[in-house]
Amino acid sequence: MKTSFAPSRRPAGYPEEFEQWIEVADGRTVFARPVVPDDAPMLQREIETADPETIYQRFFRAPVRLDAAQLDRLCRLDYGARFALAAFSSDGEGAAIVRYERTEPGVAEVAVVVRKEWRGLGLGTALLASLEEAAVERGIRRFTAYYLPDNAAIEALLSDRGFTTGIRDGE
After folding, report:
1. Region 97-108 average pLDDT
2. Rounded to whole angstroms, what are the CA distances from 168 to 54, 101, 149?
3. 43: closest CA among 15, 12, 18, 66?
4. Which among 85, 87, 132, 171 counts the fewest CB atoms within 10 Å?
């Protein structure tokens, strides 16, 4: 589906089949698609404008500033071992991003960030379901996630999707 949110330049291997419109619980819609290298400035802007709690929950520290190489790594994906989906609101702002990175054969670390104003509406759940589909198609059979003990939102999201959650080894 060609939309104004679809990337103008799709890198090799770009999985167009993961472009989708998602309607959330309050009736608003977002356009979700795989991340592309041209998303780096948008990702930097979203990190810079995110509320401190969101940054702390995702990066375990706040504030955070990513350099060009780090941004490039987050946005230049092979769509196999490294895969990410971003959701955009009708005004073109980022609403959420989910990603996985393979850590060993069949296993990938997953991360989820949903902007504060989009939480609790099913967006994270919908994106994580699409990410799971992509992972299974690419041979990933297990997700791992690192999150802070007080991050009840990610624990609930993962638990709702059927993942075993909890703190291990006191971490």
Report:
1. 96
2. 23, 20, 10
3. 66
4. 171
